[in-house]
Design goal:
single chain, mainly alpha, globular, cell membrane, membrane
Length: 168
């Protein structure tokens, strides 16, 4: 999904340029390189992997700090220009995504246990990396920030509702 997201938020008006920029972004390049290494059973020397492990371990705390900093002096949903988009994105994430996941799981013949797991995972909050992409490309930052915040608070009630519906 990352190349698609990066192409959509690209500042380029040309589709081919946006797609090329997305596919050549460091995020996508690193993911492809990691996949190639993993699939080929290659082992990189410790001198290379140890700093990458440290950097990887810092990535989640750093993205949370970045998101937290975006909340300083912010008033979620205060800008009427972006309110409808943030509420719509939040509703799609918290309600729509679990419903679609449930429907797809049912079509695939999942048993109740797998169906429950799929629905719970789909109800998790919007990932922080969405805000990170928006901030990096300076596109949709307010909507991304508000959606991440709202879906974080609404994910637990959604998961409790799913648990109730599955008799848990």
């Amino acid at each position: 999904m990352t190349p698609i997201i990066l192409a959509l938020i690209s500042s380029s008006s040309r589709v081919t340029t946006a797609m090329r920029q997305a596919l050549l972004s460091p995020i996508v390049f690193a993911a492809i390189a990691g996949l190639v290494v993993s699939l080929n059973g290659l082992n990189a020397p410790d001198a290379l992997t140890e700093p990458l492990k440290i950097l990887g371990g810092a990535s989640i705390p750093m993205i949370l700090l970045s998101f937290g900093a975006s909340l300083h002096a912010a008033r979620p949903l205060s800008d009427p220009t972006f309110r409808a988009a943030a509420v719509t994105a939040t509703a799609l994430k918290v309600l729509g995504m679990p419903a679609v996941a449930c429907a797809v799981g049912m079509l695939m013949g999942f048993d109740a246990e797998k169906l429950y797991a799929v629905c719970i995972l789909a109800a998790l909050p919007t990932a922080q990396n969405i805000y990170n992409y928006a901030a990096t490309y300076r596109r949709g930052m307010v909507v991304a920030r508000d959606t991440v915040l709202l879906s974080t608070f609404l994910a637990l009630p959604a998961m409790l509702l799913i648990a109730f519906l599955f008799g848990r």
